[in-house]
Fold this protein.
Amino acid sequence: MATTLTNTNSVSDSVEQAFAQRAPRSLWSDARRRLLRNKAAVAALLYISFLIVVAIIAPLLALHNPLDIFQNNSYRQAAWITVPNRPEASGSWAFPLGTDAIGRDVWSRLVYGTRTSLVVGFVPMVFTLFLGTVIGLVSGFFGGAVDAFLMRFAEIVYSFPAFLFFIIVMTALKDTPIGKFWNGFVILFGALSLVGWVGVARLVRGQVLSLKEKEFIEAARAIGVRQHNILFKHLLPNSLGPIIISGAFIVPGAIIAEAVLSYLGIGLRPATDRNALFPVSWGNMILDGKAAITAQPWLMIAPAISIASITLAFTFIGDGLRDALDPREAN
Amino acid sequence: MLQFIIRRLLWAIPVLFFVALVSFFLMHQAPGGPFDKDNNKKQVDGATLASLNRRFGLDKPQYINPAAASRLWASGERNPLTLGRAYLDSQFFNYVFNAMRGDLGPSYRQRGKNVQDIIFKQWPYSMRLGLLAMIFAVITGIPLGVIAALRQNSIVDYISLFFATIGVSVPTFVIGLLVIIFFGTTLKWISITNNDWNTWRPYLAPSLVLGLSTMSFITRITRSTVLEVKRQDYIRTARAKGLSERMVIVRHILRNAMIPVVTVLGPALVDLITGAVITESIFSIPGVGKFFVDAIFQRDYSMIMGSTLIYATLVVMANILVDLSYGLLDPRIRSQG
Amino acid sequence: MPPLLEVRNLKVQFKTQDGVVTAVNDVSFHLERGETLGIVGESGSGKSVTSLTLMRLIPTPPGKIAGGSIVFDGENLLDYSEEEMRHVRGNRISMIFQDPMTSLNPVLTIGRQITESLELHMKLTGAEARKRAVELLNMVGIPSGARRLDDYPHQFSGGMRQRVMIAMGLSCNPELLIADEPTTALDVTIQAQILELINRLKNETGTAVIIITHDLGVVAGMADRVAVMYAGRIVEEGPTGEIFSNPRMPYTIGLLRSIPRLDDADGRTLTPIRGLPPDLINLPAICPFSPRCDYFVAGKCDQTVPPLRPVGADHRAACLFDITLETPVPTKEPANALA
């Protein structure tokens, strides 16, 4: 009898196994799976990782110091271009992408520019997300007058066209002490973060407001979970998806803003220190290149393509994250 | 509805005031005054500087003028309006009051010209560029997005999505410069210099460049909203009625999908307005944007402030317009008034 | 006379990222003219997919009608072209959906949404269609229909919207009306009104009705016959009275036991069915209900899929055993004593 009993149970267990739901996947591992299936996003992630490596080992890849001036080598064409009767302007593999107006190596400047672009993309994103998340959480969680005030303020800031704000900040403060601090990085980061937080704050607030109504928050309240625990253990983690998605889209926005401002001559200041960590920005290079569209087109083409590809990559990542984290959007 | 319009218009006042205040504050953080150097970058002598500053009211306090008010009070003036005006007899408030009358003050670099004269003279060129770009963006972006969504995961979808992603992520000025290099200097399909901007033809390339990112943005949004609407229960209801696919699309999907699309036309329009600044400068179109960029290079503060205010007004108006059309399209909003 | 609708061996599959889901598996049933059939089952049992398949409204891809036939008035709908099918939808077969809040187009007036099919199928002019729409609204109990024709769905309550849906469904005098959970999204008091309305209109117009529901209470009051679905299959089918008084499939018994009944004199306790419905991907060829079944017999139930077999007059059940002769085995105790 005992044997039959175990036998029966094991059969019935195997039946249950056959019917069992596939192992439940957590939201995050599910999202990661979806992200990794998105070919464009994976390619973009690889490309960004590649750029990060380039940024780190820039001194190894650069043929010269990006600030070194080579006399009598101004506006040398890219290596594969020969200018008839003008050997001094014809390409040389000592300068693969040619030189700029004062004889600096474009390739080396391009390599170092990767650093600037990445830093300009990531740092304001962190500040923006932090500022936006804090304000959004506070506004949504406390509601009432705090919420009304913060959201009215956000609306005013939002109505200020971002691009014009950048221009005004950068033109006005460029020659002041804080504008000169760290070659203008500080003021640039400040301007980018001050404008970007509104979108994040609204998003987080909306998320908090809708989550507050959800049963699991009411349940947490009902069993006496403390306010700050509700905020940090329930509301924040559940708002993380949209925050990450918007973060991914802030990066290319910041990179573009820096490039445009540098192109207008009000972005980062040109470095003078040969050992500077961030000596060149692609936007600055484009501005240099504009003066020599025919004489040395690669001075502009190279940074233009670099900016285009890095922002494209971040957009693909952002799209991928959105599809992965927002299953409603995914198909 | 009328109440809604009035509320939105009133809300524009604090916004524009804030824009003016922030621009004014920031501009005055820049070292040096506007007339320190003359057009030849020579130092201006003290007496001339003082008279210039007095002529343009730059000798007054920056924000408030309590001294003037108390002087008036001491002289027996009791009319609160007059006293208030004296209290606000400052650089900032005089600028605001003048701006409200349409006077944006003199350009600091183009001597003898007022900011508003420059802006209104160049305005038609900018309008032409912006209009063409917007038309291009809307009439290609919406159909592309709709087609992509209706043929989801087809090759048409992938191609339009890919190019739309390029369009939104690659900055306009980069595309503009590449267009100039390849189609201008290399292929010589478009002329870069000596264009007659009073005709339409030279606007073709710049308006395509300017409209591209807006178009891509519209394509992407249209695609995702059409996909969203396609999944709605009421679309299934429409199919269950036996409507043809064309009727389902035109009558049921598009009507609903256009609502979110119109809401993003606001930010898109803003991008277009501010994007025009760079595009005009790249293609040397003599519009407001080009003068704005020139003003940035020359640190022409009054011109920068004036243009910023004008652009901000445009942006605010664009947003109001979009909110209005939103209300017109969506009966749920309309009935709320 | 052949039945109005005869579904044979219908099989519908969906491709998902985890594999192929067989949502409807070898389903056969029939429906006479003017008859009301109730299809009952849990969510995920395939009842809604079955009803959408009758209208050929399954999105393809990812869906696919993998086999079977749907013979409506002598013709197989699966052989129809899309164009021919459109003349059936909303005209000869129409459908009412579960959620009246989302099933009406928010940006079109309800007048427009009703006249749409009238103009399409009955070739009415705009004015005629509006006149007919007012009649329809009055028929479904919406007062002053003429005035409400130009209102938008958000100006109606949930029950009123479902009435509008019913008016739309009946507008072209269909031979078959499919009501997919027509009352699930409504308040209890409204539910009764809507069911009463469907019942009344069914009798007035003589249309056949398929009512899809998870609620046995709904079919009890409306259906002539009931089909119980589980895991994509019909597991029991028979006259409504038979199903309630003499259920022959353990799942049906479980369903009946898990609904509260006011007329239960002996105060029997509610017994929920233990476990969860199976995953429809890679279903093994065994009785799909066996893991949850109180009558489970090892070596029998886990060997084949039990076929639907006659157990009474017009009554079929998919169980290998005659459970009226067996006693249920409580959870997980050895079942071989029965065999």
